[in-house]
Amino acid sequence: MKRALEGVRVFDLTRILAGPTCTQLLGDLGADVIKVEMPGAGDDTRKWGPPYLRDEAGGETNESAYYLASNRSKRSVAIDIARPEGQELARALIARSDLLVQNFKAGGLKKYGLDYESLKEPFPGLVYCSISGFGKTGPYASRAGYDYLAQGYGGLMSITGLPGGEPLKVGVGIADIMCGMYATVAVLAALRHRERTGEGQEIDLSLLDTQVAWLANEGVNYLLSGIVPQRLGNEHPNIVPYKRFDTADGQVVLAAGNDAQFRRWCRFAGVEALAVDPRFASNPLRVRNRTELYAAMIPPFRTKTTAEWVDGLSALGVPCGPVNDIAQVFEDEQVEARGMKIELPHHQAGRQARGEDGTVPLLANPIRMTATPPAYGRPPPTLGQHTDEVLHELLQLDEPELARLREEGVIG
Q1: 139 cis-preceded (ω within 30 degrees of 0)
Q2: What is the pLDDT of residues 218-246, one digit of tens each?
Q3: Beta-ladder partners of 360
Q4: Residue 121: pLDDT above 90?
Q5: CATH number of the domain enclosing 250
Q6: Domain membership flag for residue 234
Q7: Does the predicted model carry a pTM greater than 0.85?
Q8: Residues 83, 166 within the same domain
Q9: Alpha-carbon distance 120 to 164, whole Å?
Q10: Before 366, cis peptide (omega within 30)?
Q11: How confident is the model at residue 356 (pLDDT cuts 50, 70, 90)?
Q12: Position 237 in a domain
């Protein structure tokens, strides 16, 4: 089956999460992603554990769960780009690539001659995607940036957490992930432009910019009103009822997005009086009187089990669901039906009884496409796993030359 990005080659100089999220998506969609890593070190996240993938004897490998989560569908080539001969190899591979994605600190590749200004003339069709903490311009351009900083600088932490409590980061590196998503969109647009004109270009994306962009309604709430949004815990600034509630045996989240859904909840809960109470007759009124409404909703929720609320309200078209822990997520029948857990062969994983490679469990790509769906041809590579393969395939280097380069520390 053909995949959407077959024939596109990506020279991948990314590490950590934002860049690898982008290039993994591109690889799942069929691009040939060549992940270039420093010999002997590799992507920083290879060491970000535990947990690590376990080998046949049950011992830990050098492949962390963090690294495995965002690096499938790639080939790893270990090249020391700090060496002149490594830079020559890099430029030769770039000459055979359509796209370069990198997330070094702004200006960090200039000393290697691998920045956009150095490459745009010899490779005018190259799409060059730069991801950094703060972008190429502005007073913070030279600073290093991580997801945590972007969540702080970008206001997300200020609206995450309980009212009156401390600001909290989101439980995963969401600023990194969303930056990787924006990068993927930008890359596809740039490739389409190149297809029409033959012209490459540079994409300049920052964690902070993308974090500010996806403040979404809360950002525009402030711009429109001048009122600084505050932490609301599990509540919504613009929709009521939209909250977590304790049930007889657990917890549920209720997200009644319109008046009809609220009235159906009142009937199911046996509190029809709330539906006709003038304080709660419309969403704007419920937003203004949220404290009183939530106080009245708490006791009814404790009269039924989580399953009773979820099943009963779902049947009525009222959005309600459980608060699952991660184990429950992967036991959920909908998650199972959608195939959101996958297993890929991995030569470092414990071998199966019939002598085949063991497997590594990973999260599936959520994209569903009828003609060109994502596919998983390659598990996350070990450091330098494909060095010889790629350099022979694309640059026709023979075994003696590869051995010389390895002996001199240019490749790994």
Answers
A1: no
A2: 999 999 999 999 999 999 999 999 999 99
A3: 344
A4: yes
A5: 3.30.1540.10
A6: no
A7: yes
A8: yes
A9: 51
A10: no
A11: low
A12: no
Retrieve residue 46's tokens: 């290879």
Contact indicator for 33, 10 with CB cutoff of 8 Å: yes
Token readout for 176 is 């990194």
Query: For this structure, is 147 an active site residue?
Result: no
380, containing H or E segment: none
Q: How many domains would you assign to the chain? A: 2
Task: Retrieve residue 298's tokens.
Answer: 């708490």
| Under 8 Å between Cβ of 58 and 350 | yes
Report how far apart, in Å, the C-alpha atoms of 401 and of each of 69, 186, 396 are.
34, 38, 10
Which among 176, 204, 249, 259 is annotated as catalytic? Answer: 176
The CATH number assigned to the domain holding 152 equals 3.40.50.10540
Q: What's 230-270 look like in SS3?
A: CCCCCCCCCCCCEEEEECCCCEEEEECCCHHHHHHHHHHHC
Strand order across the beta sheet in which 32-37 lies: 74-78, 32-37, 9-13, 99-102, 127-132, 201-206
Whole-angstrom distance, CA of residue 173 vs CA of residue 175? 6
Tell me which residue has tokens 């030769």. 92
Residue 332 lies in a domain: no
Contact 348, 55 (CB under 8 A): yes
At residue 181, the 3 state secondary structure works out as helix
CB burial of 2-17 (b: ≥16 within 10 Å; e: otherwise) equals ebbbeebbbbbbbbbb
Residues 65 and 176 in one domain: yes
Instruction: Name the DSSP class of 228.
Output: P
The residue length of the chain stands at 412
Work out whether strand 74-78 and strand 201-206 pair parallel, antiparallel, or are unpaired.
Answer: unpaired
The answer to whether 167 touches 158, Cβ cutoff 8 Å, is yes
Token readout for 302 is: 């404790």
Q: Confirm if 239 and 259 have CB atoms less than 8 A apart.
A: no
pLDDT of residue 353: 46
Do 311 and 345 belong together in one domain? Answer: no
Domain extent for 310: 242-322
